[in-house]
Design brief:
Elements lengths: L6 E5 L7 H9 L3 E6 L2 H8 L4 E4 L5 H8 L4 E4 L7 H21 L4 E7 L10 H16 L3 E6 L10 E2 L2 E5 L6 E2 L3 H11 L8 E5 L4 E2 L1 H12 L2 E5 L1 H10 L3 H15 L7 H7 L6 H7 L3
Parallel strand pairs: 1-2, 1-4, 2-3, 4-5, 5-6, 6-10, 8-12
Antiparallel strand pairs: 7-8, 9-11
The structure holds NADP nicotinamide-adenine-dinucleotide phosphate.
NADP nicotinamide-adenine-dinucleotide phosphate binds next to strand 5.
């Protein structure tokens, strides 16, 4: 696919990981359309120069309007914390977008997934829903690209509570932390070649650190202390305080206690260019 006069729809373009993709596609010369539940919010966040279709992924008419005439669609949705909502966003929305895209002859559907999404590792409502969503995407017949990304550096500040950063669970696996900007460049590049079609591409940053090591690097820049907490403790706190997000986080972090990275980033790096932002560089730029 060449860029001239190509339009890419981004679904989830106001999100933490969808916004940089929308911005990079625009910077690279694509026309970018957003499907947004709140167009004013989208306009405020992203600025001028985006075509915005108002709508929810649950609404078939809005989805059809947003998908009409586009060359590709990038999905960056997030479900949860209930099992029903994971199914709605990670499975059913992906299925509906893929089927509508196929019907409307959209050239490709790209989706942000995670390295630990597979039948074997589907031990949480989120990972089970993502597995089903990917299966629906593949069986829809539309050309696809699945990005199997590692942990994003952008998630680190989300663990800060006051003067500490919570290290939840016994996170022993080395992870190739990736900067959203590098990932966004890779997604945009994936739209500029047909070699990427029907592939699952592993998006891994340049260095591997366990979550504890990564948090220490970020904490030193942000001026906070790493505070370890078990997944059981977080689950109990979530139950006692009726905090569904904390309970969901305990489940997520248990999942990552179990599963380290596998898969190789070589193909993604060859086709899309190697990501090069280091965690120290990123942390220096993103002190909280
Ligand atoms: N964190 C990581 O390290 C990591 C690694 C790999 C993969 N991922 C995956 O990346 C995905 C995106 O994460 P994120 O942090 O960017 O999520 P996020 O910031 O919560 O963004 C979610 C986006 O989805 C949109 N959205 C939600 N419900 C919608 C609906 N019904 N109709 C239309 N749009 C809707 C939101 O729009 P509004 O502005 O309207 O809310 C927002 O733009 C998740 O599936 C996550 O599992 C994350």
């Amino acid at each position: 696919m060449t860029i001239t006069n190509k339009t890419i729809l981004v679904i989830g373009g106001t999100g933490m990981l969808g916004k940089p993709v929308a911005q990079q596609l625009k910077a690279d010369g694509f026309n970018v359309r957003l499907l947004a539940r709140n167009p004013e919010k989208a306009q405020k966040l992203l600025g001028a120069g985006y075509e915005i279709v108002k709508g929810d992924v649950d609404n078939a008419a809005a989805l059809k309007e947003a998908l009409t005439g586009v060359d590709g669609v990038h999905i960056s949705l997030k479900g949860g914390p209930t099992e029903a909502d994971f199914d709605r966003m990670d499975h059913l929305a992906t299925r509906d977008i893929a089927n509508a895209a196929k019907e409307l002859n959209v050239g490709r559907v790209t989706i942000l997934s995670a390295y630990a999404v597979s039948e074997e590792k589907a031990d949480t409502p989120e990972s089970r829903s993502k597995v089903k969503g990917e299966a629906a995407l593949k069986s829809s017949g539309v050309p696809y690209i699945i990005f199997r990304a590692s942990w994003f550096m952008e998630t680190l500040p989300l663990f800060i509570q006051g003067k500490s950063i919570s290290l939840i669970g016994n996170q022993i696996h080395p992870l190739h932390w990736i900067a959203a900007e590098d990932y966004a460049r890779m997604v945009s590049k994936s739209y500029q070649t047909d070699e990427t079609l029907n592939k699952e591409l592993y998006i891994f940053g340049p260095e591997a650190y366990t979550m504890g090591e990564a948090m220490k690097i970020y904490a030193d820049h942000a001026g906070v202390k790493v505070a370890p907490m078990s997944t059981q403790m977080l689950a109990v706190l979530g139950t006692l305080t009726f905090n569904a997000e904390w309970k969901g986080m305990a489940v997520l972090m248990k999942h990552y206690e179990n599963w380290g990275e596998d898969g190789s980033p070589d193909e993604a790096n060859r086709l899309l260019g190697k990501p090069n932002t280091t965690l120290r560089e990123w942390s220096a730029k993103h002190r909280k």
